[in-house]
Write a structure and sequence with these properties.
Blueprint (H helix, E strand, L loop, with lengths): L3 H11 L12 H41 L4 H9 L15 E3 L7 E5 L4 E9 L5 H12 L5 E4 L2 E3 L1 H11 L2 E6 L10 E9 L3 H13 L1 E2 L2 H18 L3 H13 L4 H4 L2 H11 L3 H15 L5 E7 L1 H7 L2 H10 L24 E5 L6 E8 L9 H12 L4 H7 L4 E9 L4 E9 L2 H18 L4 H17 L4 H13 L6 H11 L2 H12 L8 E6 L4 H10 L4 E4 L2 H12 L8 E3 L1
Parallel strand pairs: 2-9, 10-14, 10-15
Antiparallel strand pairs: 1-2, 3-7, 3-9, 4-5, 4-8, 6-7, 11-13, 11-14, 12-13, 15-16
Helix pairs in contact: 4-11, 7-10, 14-17, 14-20, 15-16, 17-19
Length: 571
């Protein structure tokens, strides 16, 4: 019998007539807003007059001068504070990794936990570009479609109930934060109580390789994804990331799954869902190959002793068809475009009011490079809160957010400006900051110690929990790094001094603003001409992208030796 609340819910939310409104951005409204903004600025300049503008400039300069005052008293207090020794007195969670069965595709990690976690890593180097682009749809349907389980088809509603009944967590990550820069690896995580082990291990296998892609669930997933992507494409930051990634990398999962290509692919299948179903079935079969899978199991020593005997581990190897596997260690830098010269690109995003800039410069200083710590530490030094870049960029109002960091996985130094009012002045402020450091050849010791603490803290935070320690260890294994790599890094941070930082600045950071780096700018329509002219004054020859998809097509064709003209205007 339906409860009263259930009837009310049906009455007001299901059975009642409803109207759905789909809002589409107006081109006329965009043009009107741009014209009104220009008129507003013009009228404000006229009303202020030369004297008013001069007073405004004076007031701003006074504020900047006040923000840049040398706070001697504060600095004296900071210098009096005791400086703890980095890395000492830290008790890391106990962690023991057993690689005895690594040649069979299985690695175990003993941690302090009452639960069992299965981490499956699937390499994607054998997938086609289209299959990599479809990984987003596959991930969307990961636990949201029918299932073949117990020899019969389980409808998706019952499959969800079964999953929630047995599994504490079931997640899939195609690149992204959970596995950091491993864009070429699909990670699946399953967490459960050891008492449910026998039921869970069979359910897990079926969730991985026995999903039934019904047309109604695929249609729903496609519509949701298209809606989300359409929203993202109206944000300049999302467009910026997509263009920068594809410009630098070819054939990787991340570049194949850029917003433009993914939306185009979904649109091509929108009216032919049966064809998409077949593609997804093939992708599921191709992904689940024994020589491409590594299974990491984490739990407590007692649980391993009581529930994961050698016989049980062998049964898991057989159940998941694990075999001798090469640990995938390829980073995004493996997919760098070989034939593309650094370019400065601009794309107008009329639906966003702010400007964004991303600069990438190849340095190939990876995790095991001798200069890795010095480069990472200098980036932390120059970019820290209330530091040099903060004062020159945010302090003067050129951009709300900024970033300068080493990208060891992508083999690049990356400079970023977000929600900028003036990207060219923000770029110039960063360039002058680095040039001044080289010229003065001196750094603040107090800020060096602060940067060391911040960099060390970022490393230590990854080990805050037992599960965090385990996933960090798994990541290092896939990077082909020793288990004690982060501990060694902490020691190197302590040992790195001003001389190494200044050398890193001259060798790696100063060249990135020399005009020979990839730069992508996204801005509103009314800023386009101003930005192009300003960057040209800094020696940067900007190309305007009119059609992003055609530009991507041009990149792929030019890399294959084709001479297809693309929709770009050289300014």
């Amino acid at each position: 019998m339906m409860s009263l609340s259930g009837k009310v819910f049906l009455q007001y939310y299901i059975e009642e007539p409803n109207v759905t409104i789909n809002s589409i951005p107006s081109i006329k409204c965009m043009d009107d807003l741009e014209a009104n903004e220009k008129e507003r600025v013009s009228q404000q300049q006229k009303s202020l007059g030369p004297e008013g503008l001069s007073n405004c400039e004076k007031e701003i300069n006074e504020c900047i001068e006040f923000n840049e005052k040398n706070m001697d008293e504060v600095e004296d207090i900071i210098e009096e504070l005791p400086s703890p020794t980095i890395g000492e007195g830290i008790s890391f969670h106990p962690l023991h990794t057993n690689k005895d069965r690594m040649d069979q595709g299985l690695i175990t990690h003993e941690i302090e936990s009452d639960f069992v976690r299965f981490y499956f890593t699937f390499d994607t180097d054998h997938l086609s570009t289209e299959d990599k682009a479809l990984l987003g749809v596959y991930a969307k349907l990961f636990c949201d479609t029918a299932l073949l389980h117990g020899g019969k088809e389980v409808p998706y509603e019952d499959a969800i109930k079964l999953k929630e009944q047995l599994l504490l967590n079931a997640s899939i990550f195609v690149g992204g934060a959970e596995i950091e820069s491993f864009t070429e690896i699909v990670l699946m995580l399953f967490k459960f109580s050891v008492e449910d082990k026998d039921q869970c291990k069979e359910l897990i296998k079926n969730l991985i390789c026995n999903k039934i892609f019904t047309e109604d669930r695929v249609t729903t997933a496609v519509n949701k994804m298209m809606s989300v992507i359409s929203v993202k494409l109206r944000k300049a930051s999302s467009v910026l990331s997509a263009i920068s990634t594809v410009t630098r990398f070819s054939g990787s999962c991340k570049s194949s799954r850029n917003l433009f290509s993914e939306l185009s692919l979904l649109e091509s299948f929108k009216n032919d869902i049966p064809a998409l179903v077949k593609k997804l079935e093939k992708l599921q079969n191709d992904l689940f190959r024994g020589n491409k899978i590594i299974l990491h199991i984490t739990s407590s020593k007692k649980i391993f002793e009581d529930h994961f005997s050698d016989k049980e581990l062998t049964s898991l190897i057989n159940l998941y068809h694990l075999s001798k596997a090469n640990i995938p260690t390829r980073l995004p830098s493996s997919f760098k475009r070989q034939n593309s010269n650094p370019e400065q690109l601009l794309k107008v995003v009329s639906t966003d009011e702010s400007s964004y800039l991303i600069l990438t410069h190849t340095i190939d200083v990876s995790y095991n490079h001798p200069d890795y710590v010095a480069v990472s530490l200098f980036a932390e030094y120059v970019g820290q809160l209330e530091g040099l870049l903060w004062k020159k960029i945010r302090g003067q109002g050129f951009a709300y957010s900024y970033d300068l960091h080493n990208g060891p996985a992508s083999g690049s130094l990356i400079f970023y400006l977000g929600r900028a009012t003036n990207v060219s002045k923000g770029y110039l402020a960063a360039k002058e900051t680095i040039d001044n450091i080289v010229k003065e050849n001196e750094l603040e010791e107090t800020q060096i110690e602060t940067a060391k603490g911040a960099l060390a803290c970022g490393i230590i935070q990854k080990y805050e929990t037992p599960s965090g320690s385990a996933i960090t260890n798994i990541i290092n294994i896939h990077r082909d790094l020793p288990i004690l790599h982060d501990t060694d890094t902490l020691a190197k941070i302590v040992q790195t001094g001003q001389a190494e930082l200044l050398e890193a600045c001259k060798k790696y950071f100063q060249p990135i603003f020399g005009g020979n780096a990839n730069i992508v700018v996204c801005c509103p329509t009314n800023k386009k001409e101003e930005i192009v002219d300003d960057l040209a004054g800094l020696g940067l020859k900007v190309k305007i992208i009119d059609d992003v998809e055609k530009y991507f097509q041009y990149l792929n064709n030019s890399e294959n030796g084709s001479e297809m003209k693309h929709s770009m205007e050289t300014v």
